[in-house]
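Bench notes, bay 3.
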Amino acid sequence: MSGRLEGKVALITGAARGQGRSHAVRLAEEGADIIAVDICAQIESNLYPLSTPEDLAETQRLVEALDRRIVTRQADVRERAQLREAVEAGVAELGGLDIVAANAGIMPMRQGEDADAMDFVDASDVDLLGVMNAVAAAIPHLRDHGSIIVTGSTAGMLKGAADNPAFGPGGAGYSWAKRTLISYVEQMCLALAPRFIRVNAIHPTNVNTHLLHNDELYRVFRPDLEKPELDDVKAAFVAWQAMPIPWVEPVDISNLVLFLASAESRYITGQQIRVDAGSLIKHAGAVG
């Protein structure tokens, strides 16, 4: 542990698994204590399984194994009061707040007769309102010179990608939310600049998590197969990036979260930073 975040406290939403768990572990490796929040329950429109209390307990175990403190709370990012209570509990125990990683996200992918307007509502409520709620709950406690890091999406930045009709209303909600976060980050960075609090967004490409690896997404890529498996879709995943890889790992995103959380990025704010292996540049001309 080199201690780049020694004495800091980080709030992470969607922390039970995937990118959120990776962020919690990576920041803890550098000395941060963690407030870990996750819904640990299913959202009806989202057909692939979301996190469980056992997942959140595993995040706690991994952070504590690094000899860092962690406060875990089950909370729905769509409900500001729940987030406020979680943040207040974490701050009371850990003594402050310096970093926010607003990471929680979903992408419902119901299609055809199963699709519903609530798919759009749920996606935008989690992916946009959830970020806004996390930031709102954090600001009263966030110390000067802090950092807010928002999870966007390279696919969300590209018209015709996640908002392709094949993804249904949930894909449209996901894309609209992720694109709207771009202007949200830019405006919030101005509001918080007098306190030297940075606000930036990270836009990943495919990440090796449950949002990528699930039956619903596989079927979108291979509608000709009744139950496609990874080998059936992997070539399409590789084709998405300019670099010949199917996805990046959660730690590849966490390493950028760490940089943006540390004093090394003290004057970087209002930025949209892609970790996308060249995917946006490869496809922007085709679908932008």
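Next record in the batch:
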Amino acid sequence: MEVSIEPSWKTHLTHEFEQPYFEQLTQFVKQEYRQYTCYPKGKDIFSAFDHCPFQEVKVVIIGQDPYHGPNQANGLCFSVKDGIPHPPSLVNIFKEIKVDVEKPYPKSGNLERWAEQGVLLLNATLTVRAHQAGSHQNKGWEQFTDAVIKTISSQLEGVVFLLWGGFAKKKSSLIDKSKHHILTSGHPSPLSANRGLWFGNQHFSKANDLLAKMGKPGIDW
């Protein structure tokens, strides 16, 4: 079936788009978007891929679900559109960056600037019904995004995976640890961060150190 996604990803994921589960997933998503308000906008569903071509991937950050409030989700995990107040997890991400790499807290929570440097901001589920967290889970998205992680693992080398929280850590089983780097910590959500499981993980400087050792430019977080 025809999926509108950045060409290099299309090349690597055509096999998935042709699977029966993906056809069923597409029908489900189309029906949901017809019947309900869903996020992100249809054109932004594959935005994480569109801003970060396959061969450019240097870092992968895995989220769970898109934001389900109005005008928040823009297709990249943890990211919000320009001018939108920063959700609590994003606030804690920016606080850690401020301490870790001494960058000032940014005005915009739009992380497209990371994606364009090679950070794939991948939610495990790419769509959600408004105000209903997890409403599009277990419909096929996870099978698709697991295939994305496996494809990155098998086809690329030296990618740094940042796995935050229990859900993301489970994805480590899909990654070839002999070729890639995995950094894990608690989730940046207040629940986890306030228990001391997030702040001080230094993932942003550590990721750049790993990239530097491989001769790759670091990320301007």
